[in-house]
Task: structure prediction
Amino acid sequence: MPIPATLDTHLEESLRHVLDNHGSLVRPRMVYQMATAYGLAAGPANDLAIALEYFHTASLLFDDLPCMDNASERRGVPCVHLAYGEAGAILTALALINRAYALSWRTVAAGSPSVQVRALAYIEQCLGVGGLLNGQSLDLHYSMLPHNRETTERIAQGKTVSLIRLTLALPAMIGGASAREVQLLERIALYWGLGYQMVDDLKDLLQSATQAGKTVARDILLDRPNVASVMGISGAVERLTRFIHLGDRTLSNLLTMRPQISFLKTLRSDLEDELVQVTRNACIAAPGARL
Result:
């Protein structure tokens, strides 16, 4: 991100705090690989990868605010609102979003008019009131909703699946993927997105802040959706295992059409490894569940 010389020092420090503590960068690497596998040049692929990571990071800054989850730690460091104030966190998130839209458009602009229309509408669909924003609002008002699996998964589809749909389907869409390929990628995003949310829910219940790298034990305290608390640990692990298997089947079908994206198997393995790690730490086994 370009940092102008005239930028207020408080905003610059807040931005650098976020950009210097960037997490694993699994998402942007995946976007870049997907984009280049579908024929995008390195420059546009890199722009899209950074853009989608900025969207994701901005959502975390908002999520951590006192009016949301009131978290204290993210990626192993103090949350931005604690280090630079709530206003600083909000302005930093908006700076990331603004830059993300600029980079997204720079990537999409190289496509045909039909690709441009489709891709930009998809970004709005995933990030707007039909996707991420709706999921976050449902999350905040969970106390007034039925506390069951259907509700928690509906919220996860808005908050988590929407961002993974962008990670997997948007680069393919911009690269001219067929409707069938996009459909299969969206299905994989659903299975893996719900799976990653379940892992996150298990971490909130089973891990320490040091292990998770963020504030934990917040869901029950704030009455927020957590599928592990709704279904029980064993039930959540069994359902997650089912999503992994459904994702495997879908990925196998997709790879017959597009073998260049076999690197997605790594993301799938990472999901399974996280599940094994979080459950092993708590010495919990799901009866009948095989990974």
Notes: The domain at 10-281 is CATH 1.10.600.10 (Farnesyl Diphosphate Synthase). The chain has one domain: 10-281. The longest strand covers residues 73-74.
